[in-house]
């Protein structure tokens, strides 16, 4: 973000330039996403600021375009549930007064923004299409939660520019430093899955629509299992559904307009399986849809990719390129995260081959697949010369299986 120096105006100018979020946001391979981020930056410049979302345990924001339309959800790293600038004081109180129950012991702290973007990457690589596009971006806004020092610096910069008008005209986006975080495209017309699932119990769907919902549900299962999502309830995945007479376009297929959106993926990619107080289960495992064997459509979509070790290795490398950008990146811990993910992929591949259901999948023994080395806990099976498969038998104290 630039160095803070007090040796002349040149250093002040450099610091001002470095707080321009546009200097960081480059998406040459995705011009559509780049255009959306540009609109978000233009809106902030014009005083249309992101609006903090009241729900949740972190500082997250609805981001708007210059006309005030919501176009995305931004979750800054520094305002994550246990981030040092989290505006939700209850989490800070939790950390201060109850450290023994603080956080999820299987996750690396303050990497939620990377988990959000990584879930989108996995979704894209597997062709699932259930995660709204999410990438790491930098944004600055007066409505974000900043420290008193940052706000004082911002006032100082504005005062300096008032004294040097020419510089002010050149560096028009000044003030508060950009925050790094995840930016997820906003999806319209969706409601929490729990709402629709209850409706579907009372008003059963036509068979063809039920099959479509089942197919979409299985994609959610594949995503959550591969990334080992530790925070999937029926309130943080969404369904879009239109009944006859509620906006569907043609008479013959009025009930067909439906899809799933998997949001809130910030608590995934653990570096070990949950083995302490809580199991962090997948709540979709209690749904009737979880008792149905994976469809041929789902197997055709992902099995050939997941069973290809080259594909899995490419996926790990893509995730490495993303995760290494974090200031606290630790290569050894990242490799542990990938060991868990490879184990999940291995189990899922076997379940798809064996015609199992999602409920049977989550009941399989937990596995990690790490680069070959001696030692380790559990039963070890060597997979060629590159990787070692380890079965873990320890169960969480609060386990649902």
Description:
This protein has 401 residues and is α+β, with helices and mostly antiparallel strands. It has a domain at 9-112 and 132-185. It has twelve helices and eleven strands. The chain has helices spanning 9-18, 31-45, 89-97, 112-126, 148-163, 165-170, 193-202, 207-227, 296-306, 309-323, 331-353, 358-362; strands at residues 51-52, 61-64, 70-76, 134-139, 179-185, 191-192, 237-241, 258-262, 366-371, 379-383, 387-392. A hairpin with a 3-residue loop joins β10 and β11. It is globular. The N and C termini lie far apart (48 Å). Mean pLDDT is 83; it is low at 1-18, 167-173, 250-257 and 397-401.
Keywords:
about 400 residues; alpha+beta; 5-stranded antiparallel sheet; 11 strands; about 15% strand; globular; disordered C terminus
Mean pLDDT: 83
Number of helices: 12
| Distance between the ends | 48 Å
User: Helix- and strand-based class?
Assistant: alpha+beta
Determine the strand fraction and express it as a percent band.
5-15%
The major beta sheet can be summarized as: 5 strands, antiparallel
Fraction of residues in helix: 25-40%
Q: Any low-confidence stretches, pLDDT <50, length ≥5?
A: 1-18, 167-173, 250-257, 397-401
Order of SSEs: HHEEEHHEHHEEHHEEHHHHEEE
Shape type: globular
Q: What is the gyration radius calculated from CA atoms?
A: 23 Å
Placed side by side, the strands forming the largest sheet appear as: 1-2-3-5-4
Number of strands: 11
GO cellular component, one term: plasma membrane
Keywords: ATP-binding, Cell membrane, Cytoplasm, Endoplasmic reticulum, Endosome, Golgi apparatus, Kinase, Lipid metabolism, Membrane, Nucleotide-binding, Transferase
EC number: 2.7.1.67
GO molecular function: 1-phosphatidylinositol 4-kinase activity; ATP binding
